[in-house]
């Protein structure tokens, strides 16, 4: 291995399983946003990026973003279990005969197996172990095992916050010396206000009026949208009449009761709008830009990317004062106890009625977002690659 590699000399394999439309059906979760951002921004940091997916054999011909690794993830994992430690998944086989080998492979999720080059893995949290009540019991054991395996097999681990380091050390037993914090980022286009005509078209499509309360995220228990809904419904009628609550997110695990509560509020004539099928990035940006306040009541986040998107969009933010979110916000958001419906409601009221606080949060949020762009994250990620290779 060349211990004097410069960024321009690095060939990096990047896992983009969570980005590949043939494997995701077009939906993109937080892992997909992260993987796509690295795919787009690492080349500007001076490395050659080769995207790969773990794909079932029948899906390989349909891949559009990158090439398939030689084995599906279940088969590669089985090989890890049954074959000697000297046997590795061959990235060279995927590259083709005569191609220059990879210097490093970056697994952007839990799909980590032995490879013929060093592996860096991004692990965003240890949620299935730290809070099993927020994860499906049917999948919990498998997820725990896969993530623990990923943490131990990778030569180095990247995570998004200092908070997540503590979780990875305590729950997965990862040596803290093998973990680097690389905060996530926000794309440059989020700083550009969308065209007024495009915003108006999107608002009309979904029956929205500018100035609403907005929240974004898959509907699942840890996102705490039920308490946000309760807080909204407890606001004075005049405020609810003037400002809608807009919830953007697909239904997730154990969301049935929340969905029923949303539907019941809508049937009573409350100004609650649920957009469960929004997948267009341009429309999402337009929804942020047209909001009066962004509310993020999550009980647990390894980073909390929606905060940055709201900051960059010039929207005042209120968020939970727990887990990684204060670290990400750095004082740019109003913080509340996510278990207190009253505190959530007070923050919502403050952001739409206190003009001085609104202006302060908007300005501080823009400054914070400028510190955390994907260009910065890509450069920090390349520095981790070099650290691993130069050991």
TrEMBL record:
The record lists the membrane-crossing segments as none
**Alphabetized UniProt keyword annotations:** Transferase
Name any Gene Ontology BP term.
Answer: lipopolysaccharide biosynthetic process
The Swiss-Prot or TrEMBL record annotates one GO molecular function as: glycosyltransferase activity
Top-level taxon in the UniProt lineage: Bacteria
What SUPFAM superfamilies does the record point to? UDP-Glycosyltransferase/glycogen phosphorylase
What the entry lists under Pfam families is as follows:
Glyco_transf_4, Glycos_transf_1
Q: InterPro entries from the entry?
A: Glyco_trans_1, Glyco_trans_4-like_N
User: Any idea where the Glycosyl transferase family domain is?
Assistant: 212-368
Please list the residue ranges annotated as the Glycosyltransferase subfamily 4-like N-terminal domain: 29-189
User: What's the name of the protein?
Assistant: Glycosyltransferase
